[in-house]
Request: fold
Amino acid sequence: MNRIALASLGCKTNQYEIDALAEWFRRHGFTIVDDKEPAEVYVLNTCTVTAEAERKARQLLRRYRKLNSEALTVVCGCYAQRSDLREMADICIGTAGRSVLPQLILGALEQTGSRGGLEKAAFQTDVYEELGVPAVPSETRAFLKVQDGCDNRCAYCAISLARGRARSRSIKNIILEARALAARGFSEFVLTGTNLNLYGSDFHGAEGAKNTRTADLADVINAVSQVEGVRRIRLGSLESTLMTEDFVERISGIRPLCPSFHLSLQSGSDRILKAMNRRDSRASYRDAVSRLRAAFPGAGITTDLIVGFPGETKEDFEETLAFSDEIGFLRIHVFRFSRRPGTLADKMPGQVPAAIAMERSEILRAKAAELAVKAIADRMGQSFEVLVEQFDDKGRAEGYTPEYIFVKGVARRRRSDRDALGGDMPARGAIVPMKIVGSDGETAVAEVLSAENAL
Ligand code: SF4
Reply:
């Protein structure tokens, strides 16, 4: 009996990698089980963004041992890349080598392969690593990894230290996977990577001239948009520096591209952005957002903000609050600064006391909730196409508008006996028109205008 449980912590890219591994094992006769159940193999893709993510990984590895002490435990990913987890798992690799992980696992199961730590350096990190099978998700939208690694060194960030240099996937392979997933009925695709801004930065132009980009993210979006069955394209996390006039012009004509942009800002204070070694400023960020809103009226702008970065004063934090109001974010992911070994910020003076960081994160989360409610109010009475992802316990159809407003859709009341459309609910995976008629906290309540998949 070969039951395998595969789990991922952290970002969409990690989830993509685990979905691809799961598909490999599914195709080779393994039974995929939940990682809360007994299995013969456990695979965990780890994250190093915060100390909390690392603690969760250790907790899960211990749990797998408890669930089946005979099981083969495998750990990979960013935390495993930066730490020695050989005490906690039988096979440990880092952020490269996932393409050979199936063989390593089969070898260990047949006792022909080694258990115990493998030299991470054994795996290449200067070219994009194809996993060889499509990442078939259990959700209704598919993640499409197009890039890996990052050449930047933001002062707080351990990701670039874990994932290595920026490397881009060929557009040919991106298209092949998009076709395979579209053929399975997936119509919404989220392009993901470590830093999508850097897509193509490693492609050499003619005569090997570095950085003469032969392709960039706009080319990827355009290519994916032409795959039959692709109805909606979303973008993973971006930096505002990508939103030049030329780039916005080029993406503005791509119809399946959803007007939802996650522009990671991190702080609303120019002084702190500088200390973070970020590449944008309030002014450049503001310009990028206005360019996007001009090209995509009503676009949803979401972001990441860190509170408690070393040296952050009350005034810096107030600038972050004021700038959040000015931009009118649709959603804010709030993070408390987490010291990461090996990063510049770990050694910086002026570490902010945990209590102050906690207080600021609560204030910013309240601001985020206020802005999310305002974003719904601003769109009251408007109709949007929603991809139905699941149904809640009241039978309401849940999903996101193209702008990334989370919606719960209820059947339209039958107005008269002749009103044929009233009452019908769409199927999971359908993209249907809904009209926002109310809100329930940060969730919009909508009326399902038609249960028919809007083609
Ligand atoms: S851009 Fe900065 S925060 Fe993002 S992965 Fe690179 S170094 Fe980390």
Q: What stands out?
A: The pocket of iron/sulfur cluster is lined by residues 150, 152-154, 157, 159-160, 194-195 (CB under 6 Å). The chain has a mean pLDDT of 92. The radius of gyration is 23 Å.
